[in-house]
Amino acid sequence: MSIDNSLKAFEEAQQLIPGGVNSPVRAFRSVGGTPLFIAKGEGAYLVDVDGNRYVDYVQSWGPLLFGHRDESIESAVIEAVKHGLSFGAPTQAESELAKLVISMFDSIEKVRFVSSGTEAVMSAIRLARGFTRRDDIVKFTGCYHGHSDSLLVQAGSGAATFGNPSSPGVPADFTKHTLLAEYNNIESVKKCFADSKEIACVIIEPIAGNMGLVPADKEFLHELRALCDANGTLLIFDEVMSGFRATLHGAESITGVKPDIVTLGKVIGGGMPVGAFGARAEIMAKLSPEGPVYQAGTLSGNPVAMAAGLAAISKLKNNPQVISVLDERAKRLVEGMQKEAAACGIAMQIDTRGSMFGFFFNQNPVKNFADACKSDEALFAKFHAMMLQEGFYFACSLYETGFISTATTDEMIEETIKASGRVFKALTNG
Ligand code: KE4
Q1: Measured from the CA of 209, which atom of ligand 1 is nearest?
Q2: Is 238's C-beta closer than 6 angstroms to any atom of ligand 1?
């Protein structure tokens, strides 16, 4: 399989764009090799600039629940474009999508649209701080919430719960209010509440997808809710990735734990740049121009992006069975691959939540980031490269999540499983 044109394109891109990409994970650094430059998407497939076709299990990192070039989303965008691209003034499309999102989440009475997940989370944190008039926040190692300064945090020294910047360019002062806890470990959260009486919010991916797929234990979330209630702290569910991917009505609908604020992204833009955050009216009332907490955006609620989101979420709302159908397909995929791996003596931990799937080359179950880091990264990198050769495009990092779209057929799942069997055999000379 030739990737000469991708090699040339990457060569050129690296002269123009840092690392040749506009988002680091795309550079294939954790798996090695050359990132494929994509010419087009068609249904379940990506086609690269050398004409190679792959079954796409990344789907733009989640947004494309209905695959590439979904007819209803595409025609909605084309129709919207005919009326103009952006006005910087309110449109009814924003209210229509707001109505739809509010109807799908019990915890959301009002919503604000932005242009990315990072923006949604950054704004939600500021809103929580403004509402509680407190500065400290708690996040979990292994959870990613976008690249705003106070969330680029790594564990501090020793047992300290207060974090240090995880990236140059983030002043220590910007992370001194961020405490770190361990996912699925309520004692570590209690320690944060012992170290600070000024915690504005706890933010968590209730179905974590950025350390690989690691859903939070239900009882852990219930204990987290109780701790927040006891301390007057807001609980933020970051569902930028899991929203409308894992469930129809949010993690709250399958865990019974109601967050105070929900952040969304990806699927609600149908492939166009949309993020959102929502909460009960009392909290959202704090947001400018109604309240004092400032937040703004030139392209927030962009009418073309709203049209794409409206088409995507309406389609999902009118076909609620999509999530359970895709969950079955996701289960078939990872269970099939796990069987092929076991036949070659390779241990594989698997999990799914709706259209999201994850797997780790790991002897033991993965409950947090430390567990995830014990997985076999080298084996994952080889698996990734060889599955590309077989025509299957998996996430280029073991700390990501895979996605099934409505365009991913049973036949593709079967072909993927067979290909994984060939790859595991080749990797183990089985
Ligand atoms: P964006 O700013 O990338 O739209 O969203 C940030 C974000 C916030 N919260 C969660 C739970 C997320 O998963 C993300 C972004 N997800 C990554 C994939 N792991 C985006 C891919 C990338 O960084 O290129």
Answers
A1: 13
A2: yes
Given strand 356-360, what is the order of strands in its sheet?
349-353, 356-360, 402-403
How does pLDDT run across 92-151, given as a tens digit for each residue?
999 999 999 999 999 999 999 999 999 999 999 999 999 999 999 999 999 999 999 999
Structural domains in the chain? 4-57+320-429 (3.90.1150.10), 71-318 (3.40.640.10)
For residues 125 and 287, what is the distance between their CA atoms, to the nearest angstrom?
Answer: 12
Query: Interior CA angle at 295 toward 290 and 296, to 5°?
Result: 105
User: Which of ligand 1's atoms lies nearest the C-alpha of 273?
Assistant: 4
**Is the C-beta atom of 277 inside 6 A of ligand 1?**
no
How many other CB atoms are there within 10 angstroms of residue 240's CB atom?
30
Is the CB of 384 inside a 6 Å radius of any atom of ligand 1?
Answer: no
Span 148-199, pLDDT tens digits:
999 999 877 776 788 889 999 999 999 999 999 999 999 999 999 999 999 9
Q: Whose CA is closest to 277, among 119, 52, 46, 412? A: 119
Probe residue for ligand 1, chosen from 61, 125, 143, 353 as the CB with the greatest number of ligand atoms within 8 Å: 61
Confidence of residue 47 (pLDDT cuts 50, 70, 90): very high
